[in-house]
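Chain A, query sequence.
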Amino acid sequence: MVQRLERLEVVEAADTPPVWAALRNEAEHIAASEPSLASLLNAVILRHGDIARALSYQLARKLSDQELRAMSLRETCEEAYAADLSIVVAAEADLRATFERDPACKGYVQPFLFFKGFQALQTYRVAHWLWRQGREAMAFYLQSRASELFQVDIHPAASIGKGAFFDHGTGIVIGETAVVGEDVSMLHGVTLGGTSADRIDRHPKIGRGVLLAAGAKVIGNITIGDYAKVAAAVVLQPVPSGCTAVGVPARLVNCPTCAEPSKTMDQSLPDSAYDYVI
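Chain A, predicted structure.
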């Protein structure tokens, strides 16, 4: 009951402003109740005036190494956020999506500090901005660090919409020409891969609100329609909007599926589901 009440308090606090006030409120509560973490919470969250500065500090703290110090990384992140506010908007949407879709998540501090799926996604967003500025070497550096630290490998040229949720994160691979729509959820072991060594548009296009379950492999320049679901399948052909793909090779079942699979995280199949090979 205590956990449920705390969770409801976070939702209410998230109304105005949406995420940053809730994050600070929760951090203050944890710092007061868990003094051993107070220094960490103050350094990463409470001493900053907005989520962009806090996120810059957190990413620099996680990603820095002997070759690239934390201050340089922090400046790079702050530069990206100042130049393109949409990155900050996407980060807030990603954080909210994590809290709302992961029943194991008790608030905003947990993913902000500890969830490697969220942190890998935010590293990608900065790397993607660098890529678009023509700073490919630095973008690749961030990709490499995220792969080493979080076991999530996203090419900085890939496009990922806001409100994404990477549950667990481990083993997610997203190729160079992949496009992922808004409000997509994916679990560990998902691959958005290519089918050619040619430098062409060779990776999947994932629609809005899609759920990619653990182990899903979507290969080639194919489209997964809006609000579709992909189970632990190998998908080599397009999946229509609102359908579910399962199996190796993938077949379609349960068309139409639930209304918003990425938000409900519903990975079940009804007994009455019909199927046919694709």
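Residues 8 and 107 are 9 Å apart (CA to CA). The longest helix spans residues 85-101.
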